[in-house]
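Work Package 4 report. The design task specified in the project plan requires that, given a folded chain encoded as structure tokens, an amino acid be chosen for each position. We show below one input record used in the internal validation round.
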């Protein structure tokens, strides 16, 4: 399909919801490795992930929408975040 999506469960894994607003939805054949997703520790946490295609995306609303925050990088193998309040 070539669509980049993040899946969210609010039922402990019983049901999953595909989240894709702001993510590429055509010809996007990238992977997200296990260590390439992170969550910050703010009260309203941000979620971040990097792709093997060299992009990093962020969501400030629990994954409802995403935006690219870095592009044209080498393969992103891991992502770590540190929140500065």
């Amino acid at each position: 399909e070539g669509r980049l999506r993040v899946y969210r469960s609010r039922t402990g894994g019983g049901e999953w919801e595909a989240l894709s607003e702001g993510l590429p939805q055509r010809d996007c054949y990238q992977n997200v490795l296990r260590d390439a997703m992170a969550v910050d520790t703010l009260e309203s946490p941000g979620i971040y992930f990097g792709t093997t295609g060299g992009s990093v995306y962020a969501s400030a609303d629990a994954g409802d929408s995403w935006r690219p925050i870095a592009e044209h990088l080498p393969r992103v193998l891991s992502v770590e975040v540190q929140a500065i309040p």
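Strands lie at 6-8, 17-19, 37-39, 47-50, 56-59, 67-70. Validation will be extended to a larger panel in the next phase.
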